Amino acid sequence: MGMKVGIIGCGSITKHRHAPEYAANPNVDEIIFFDRNPERAKELALEFGGRVAETVEELYEDPEIVAISDCSSNEAHHINSTNALLNGKHVLCEKPLAINVECAEKILEAQKKSGKKLMVDHNQRFTKAHQKAKDIIENKELGEVLTFKTSFGHEGPESWGVDKTNGTWFFKKGRSHSGVAGDLGIHKIDLIHFLLDDEIEEVRAFHGALDKLDENGEPIEVCDNVVCALKTKKGRLGTASFSWTYYGAEDNSTTIYCQKGIIKIYHDPKDQLIIEMRDGTVVRYDLEPIQTNDNQTNSGVIDSFIDSIIHDKEPMVTGEQALATLKVIEKIIGE
């Protein structure tokens, strides 16, 4: 007997990732969609053979719904995820976990109280190239990690969102809160924590709204670019840049510099992982292309979430890990 799942929020992330991945999972029988705009929910219910909940309470109160994906906009996560957990549902929350640490802590409290699973969609941990890089680092094949640099940038969320408009919620302070830092930056901070088995402790950062305009032609209220220097608890040093104004090919690359060589991830479209050794040896791995806004592949997140519920194991990305990442984002935007 398969399970029923609910999804709160029917924007792009639901359409491209959550709904198709639940639909493809053999353990899921039915998806129940809720959106404040009922038309959006109806459209996805038709596309994926699910049904529509008229109110969000319907999802919470339906005893047959085992798990809920919270794909609402950032400012609502601490409300929806908390309510879902306290109503006895397992929750997969989109990133960032919340708009700030205080709100995130409410979700973690609800998780402890409920005893249900809380997983956060930091999907970069799941790519084959990042998993392979983690193995290499963990096994100390290249010695210790010394420094790193990472970036994530594309031409901006107005080309990705459902409405394709400069009126996108990503540009609104009240809803997105941290702009490109919480949209793209948070992925890479989490990735560095994951790859290095470490935590970023100190941050020096600049951020600004350099180019994006809202629907009224005014500069947006949140940052569209961030550059930062980072220091981890174990003393590694690194740099990171996040941008909504890379007006060309998307950049999702990371370089890890170790004692005996370097690991280049997603620099080359064909060989997603390249190791350059100190002695001149080069090893290339053709693993799988990174997901981009134009190339949606199965992220593995939904399958992992469902697996953690069925086998009652700790989710691959816990609330505590997501909170640690959010703390760094708060330091970056200086709040």
From TrEMBL:
Report domain GFO/IDH/MocA-like oxidoreductase positions.
Answer: 130-263
Q: What positions does the domain Gfo/Idh/MocA-like oxidoreductase N-terminal occupy? A: 3-122
Q: Report the InterPro entries cross-referenced here.
A: Gfo/Idh/MocA-like_OxRdtase_N, Gfo/Idh/MocA_Oxidoreductases, GFO_IDH_MocA-like_dom
Q: Which PANTHER family match?
A: BILIVERDIN REDUCTASE A (PTHR43377)
The protein's name:
Gfo/Idh/MocA family oxidoreductase
